[in-house]
């Protein structure tokens, strides 16, 4: 059993050791047997004759997939199909060069692919080639010598306190009002709120447990997962206004549930018939509400940035904000919201003057 919890099964084939991994020894053995059967049938080949497409496909499906969530597997399959395999999937694995990869990134950048997506492709390809080196199929990982395009930092557009108040007041009575209020007072992500169930909410103590997220995947529909990181699983203490909003939401859901077409999933923010709320409809309605409130168009995710910015500006400890947002480390929070801290530092200076200045 490996350190990462995976079981391994190995066998020699034409002088090379073949290893497959699984969650159990039985699963690893089954994967190894299937892989060896494909080798004997000529469906795949080893060594210098193996193509990039063959290697990447089997690497993702037989090894790397075990470490990923369903949404990540789906995303990486798309990157292979739409970008990597068309570019140099036909090449022998041993013939892939740094120039191939470098030219590919430059071409994709010229075609309008974002630097962030190119970086994701690079991480995927480099991870695959690193394992090929480890298995003795390649002498070196050519991705180590490639220059990546600079990834720009997204500039968030958080609302001010006055703008947040205007949004909440303008949407009061609308079916989205509780959702927006909880979003702006907790900083929870859209997928976390859409996956929230009443079993996760204690309206008496005002505590919400966030441990799931949901998103729509092409060909699969809505897929629910646990939060991406352990730190993403958290309990949030709701302010009184959010508790009141959720009480209103409970009444609203009870009314919806009287429909003969209701499918009870126990969701706090369901769609019309109890299933997951359609996120495209949600985003469209959000833009309409912004316009009606006389506010600039921002992403729904900017409500999360608004919550963090307002809390830090109010002097809330950065560690507390990190835990509220579910960031993996305090450095992530500081990296995103460090621009708020100078004002806090000036407040510290003023407080020190108040404490000691008058006595000197």
Question: Explain this structure to me?
Answer:
The protein has 360 residues and is mostly helical. The chain is built from 14 helices and 7 strands. It has a 3-stranded antiparallel β-sheet with strand order 3-4-7, with no helix packed on it. The chain has a two-stranded antiparallel ribbon with strand order 1-2. Strands 5-6 form a two-stranded antiparallel ribbon. Helix 2 (52-62) runs antiparallel to helix 3 and helix 7 (177-186) packs antiparallel against helix 9. The relative contact order is 0.08.
β-strand number: 7
Query: Can you give the helix content as a percent range?
Result: 40-55%
The CATH homologous superfamily name of the largest domain equals Intergrase catalytic core
Poorly predicted parts: none
Q: Gyration radius, to the nearest Å?
A: 26 Å
CATH topological fold name of the largest domain: hpI Integrase, Chain A
Mean pLDDT: 86
Looking at the overall shape, the CATH architecture of the largest domain is: Orthogonal Bundle
Principal-axis shape equals globular
Query: Strand-residue fraction?
Result: 5-15%
Distance between the termini: 67 Å
Which tags fit this structure?
360 residues, hpI Integrase, Chain A
Summarize the structure.
The protein has 360 residues and is mostly helical. The chain has helices at 25-40, 52-62, 70-88, 98-110, 115-134, 161-171, 177-186, 190-194, 240-256, 279-292, 302-313, 318-325, 330-337, 341-356, and strands at 7-13, 16-22, 201-202, 207-210, 212-217, 221-226, 234-237. It folds into 3 domains: 1-43; 47-145, Tyrosine recombinase, N-terminal domain (DNA polymerase, domain 1); 161-347, Intergrase catalytic core (hpI Integrase, Chain A, Orthogonal Bundle), CATH 1.10.443.10.
């Amino acid at each position: 059993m490996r350190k990462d919890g995976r079981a391994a099964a190995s066998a020699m084939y034409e002088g090379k050791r073949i290893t497959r991994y699984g969650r159990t020894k039985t699963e690893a053995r089954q994967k190894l047997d299937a892989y060896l059967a494909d080798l004997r049938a000529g469906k795949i080949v080893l060594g210098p004759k193996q193509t990039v497409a063959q290697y990447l496909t089997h690497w993702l499906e037989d090894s790397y997939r075990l470490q990923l969530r369903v949404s990540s597997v789906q995303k990486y399959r798309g990157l292979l199909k739409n970008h990597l395999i068309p570019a140099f999937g036909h090449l022998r694995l041993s013939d892939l060069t740094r120039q191939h990869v470098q030219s590919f990134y430059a071409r994709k950048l010229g075609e309008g692919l974002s630097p962030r997506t190119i970086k994701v492709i690079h991480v995927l390809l480099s991870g695959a080639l690193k394992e090929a080196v480890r298995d003795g199929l390649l002498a070196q990982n050519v991705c180590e010598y490639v220059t990546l395009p600079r990834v720009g930092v997204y500039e968030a557009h958080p609302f001010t306190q006055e703008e947040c108040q205007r949004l909440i007041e303008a949407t009061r009575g609308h079916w989205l009002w509780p959702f927006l209020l909880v979003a702006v007072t907790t900083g929870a992500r859209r997928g976390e709120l859409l996956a929230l169930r009443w079993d996760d909410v204690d309206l008496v103590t005002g505590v919400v447990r966030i441990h799931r997220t949901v998103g729509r995947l092409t060909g699969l529909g809505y897929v629910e997962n646990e939060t991406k990181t352990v730190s993403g699983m958290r309990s949030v203490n709701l302010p009184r206004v959010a508790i009141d909003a959720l009480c209103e939401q409970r009444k609203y859901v009870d009314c919806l549930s009287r429909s003969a077409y209701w499918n009870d999933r126990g969701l706090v923010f369901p769609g019309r018939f109890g299933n997951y709320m359609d996120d495209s409809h949600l985003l469209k309605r959000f833009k309409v509400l912004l316009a009606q409130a006389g506010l600039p168009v921002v992403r729904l995710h900017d409500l999360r940035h608004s919550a963090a910015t307002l809390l830090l500006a109010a002097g809330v400890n950065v560690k507390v904000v990190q835990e509220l947002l579910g960031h993996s480390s305090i450095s992530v929070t500081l990296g995103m919201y460090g621009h708020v801290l100078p004002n806090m530092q000036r407040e510290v200076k003023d407080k020190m003057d108040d404490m000691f200045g008058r006595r000197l």
